[in-house]
Design brief:
alpha/beta
Length: 579
């Protein structure tokens, strides 16, 4: 899809000819257009532990495709997955109400039309169970399970300069010696669980949404407390409002939310989206955010009446289109953002028709789109039910968990049978930093990032040879990108990069300090131009005490990011030390 009006959005300062990858086509063709080699890398001298070419961490959307690509190259590769099942975020986040807010047909792999067409989505925004089932379908269709170790968390990975390999320890007590490590850990995979004093004293049930029990939880008729009203909290509240006896929602920061227009697909609609594969394959990877919609008009070119017409049309679409494709200026222009924010506030207040609830549930101190914008389906209306209560906790915060409920700072105690913590994640860095990565000369990734989050394109880091990442900081990610689309490009770039190293007789690849510094400087320049960098949220790490502030996702667009990364590949990986 061509973007006819996105010049208001920040773009990469890098210029150059647009590059198009051919990895979207079925078959083993790399981003450079050449056939992939079946060459196996030379083994290092024998040592303790199992040697292999590539270790992949995580069996989610990214890890599964990375394994497929590595095997297509003829390399020995395995996945270590901490969970007992495949699916990554869609395995762990099985809380009530969990579902996509990207449209199902675009939340897919685009390298194989056969894989795409042989899976059928039942509705526009699929449930967690359906997405998890799809990922298991992928694993079975590509025969990936034989190379996946479930219930196996990576606890540490230490670079051994003497043999140019990583020494990896797992939760099972096993030792692996891969040449390359590819960490597909996920951007939102490190839940913030221990948030309040006294959690272990609670006599009822307590859950974090990202660690929901596989057997589910019977909350019918119970007094349930939900902490948090971000994207996850909103879905939980919607699902539990008709079920719980009393549902008390503790609201610290209200969120703008867009009404979801979900539909069950008919046979005609299913065939229509399946027939659209080639168009999606061409359009999504080169769009700003990996979606099949984009802004068409500039705010300044239109009359107030025409602006309102476009806002109403995008709002009625019932998708993320209003956020990502109404007007690009809402991300960078405070005046435009204020008008669009007022439009959404009015919509929310009209639905509530209650001054007290509007004070608690309608944002007032930050602009629309500068935090994660979720879709909802009856979230606001749930608070009009007599069994659902909104409790503001910004000025009167939760002080502790008691044996019987939650106590606020003013001493008020809310008696509860169950507590659901929709308290979010240590985004971007958390899942990587919870593994003890040690690079050259014992450099700790955790300590390194504590001084300031930096990467080279969200793909590698200086000081950590042969360590690749997907969904990592300073690359397009969940903040502004349809994740499967952006992850697939990173997977393909990594696969072609490793092939380049091996075919040219190399053993090690690592970005220079200079190119990493240049990318961070460029990233920060783009970040400074967008309003989300000025708003406290997980986007900038402000939800984690002591975390250095930096916009975690690249805001210049997946298309500009893709162009720059392909330029690097076509230059023979200029700025990367290969030896």
């Amino acid at each position: 899809m061509d973007r006819s009006r996105t010049d208001a959005m920040p773009h990469a300062a890098y210029s150059g000819q647009t590059c198009r990858s051919r990895t979207g086509m079925m078959g083993n063709v790399g981003a450079g257009g050449k056939r992939m080699s079946n060459k196996i890398i030379e083994k290092a001298p024998a040592g303790a532990g199992t040697e292999l070419d590539v270790l992949i961490i995580g069996a989610g959307v990214s890890g599964l495709y990375q394994l497929h690509l590595m095997r297509e190259k003829g390399l020995t590769a395995r996945i270590c997955e901490a969970g007992s099942g495949i699916g990554g975020t869609w395995f762990w986040n099985r809380y009530p109400g969990a579902r996509l807010d990207s449209e199902s047909p675009s939340y897919q792999y685009l390298f194989s039309e056969e894989l795409y067409r042989n899976w059928t989505w039942s509705e526009r925004f699929a449930t967690q169970a359906e997405v998890e089932a799809w990922l298991n379908y992928v694993a079975d269709s590509l025969a990936l399970r034989q190379d996946i170790d479930l219930d196996t968390a990576v606890t540490s990975a230490v670079w051994d300069e003497s043999i140019l390999r990583w020494t990896v320890q797992t939760s099972r007590g096993t030792t692996l010696r891969p040449r390359f490590v590819i960490a597909c850990c996920g951007m939102l995979s490190a839940p913030l669980t221990d948030q309040f004093p006294g959690q272990t004293l609670f006599k009822g049930q307590i859950f974090h949404t990202a660690r929901w029990p596989a057997t589910g939880a019977n909350l019918a008729g119970k007094r349930v407390g939900v902490i948090g009203t971000g994207a996850t909290g909103i879905q939980v509240v919607q699902a539990l409002a008709p079920v719980a006896g009393e549902l008390t929602v503790f609201v610290r920061t209200p969120h703008y939310a867009l009404p979801m227009q979900n539909v069950q697909y008919s046979a005609v609609e299913i065939e229509a989206y399946k027939s659209n594969f080639r168009a999606l394959q061409d359009q999504l990877p080169v769009s700003f955010g990996g979606f099949d919609f984009a802004p068409e008009y500039a705010w300044a070119d239109l009359s107030p009446e025409k602006r309102l017409e476009i806002l109403e049309a995008c709002y009625s679409d019932g998708s993320l289109k209003f956020w990502l494709a109404s007007f690009a200026e809402l991300f960078v222009d405070e005046e435009v953002n204020a008008e669009i924010s007022a439009f959404i506030r009015a919509k929310m207040r009209a639905r509530l028709n209650d001054d007290r609830l509007s004070e608690i549930l309608v944002p007032a101190d930050y602009g629309f789109g500068t935090r994660r914008v979720p879709l909802e389906n009856g979230f606001l209306e749930a608070f009009l039910q007599p069994n659902v209560h909104a409790v503001p906790v910004k000025s009167n915060p939760i002080a502790a968990v008691t044996p019987t409920g939650l106590q606020l700072a003013d001493g008020t105690v809310h008696e509860l049978d169950a507590i659901i913590m929709a308290t979010g994640f240590d985004a971007g860095t958390g899942a990587f930093a919870r593994i003890d990565f040690r690079g050259r000369d014992g450099l700790s990734l955790r300590d390194h990032w504590q001084k300031g989050v930096s990467t080279a394109f969200g793909l590698q880091m200086n000081g950590f040879p042969n360590l690749f990442m997907t969904g990592a900081p300073l690359a397009p990610s969940a903040a502004l990108c349809n994740m499967p689309i952006c992850l697939q490009f990173q997977n393909e770039w990594i696969a072609d990069c490793i092939e380049h190293v091996l075919e040219n007789g190399g053993h090690v690849i690592e970005p220079t300090a200079q190119i990493e510094r240049e990318w961070v400087e460029h990233h920060d320049l783009v970040a400074a131009s967008v309003l989300m960098s000025k708003t406290d949220s997980w986007y900038v790490g402000s939800n984690v005490a002591g975390k250095p502030r930096r916009l975690l996702a690249y805001a210049g667009g997946a298309d500009a990011y893709r162009t720059r990364c392909l330029e690097i590949a076509e230059s023979g990986y200029s700025g990367f030390d290969i030896h």
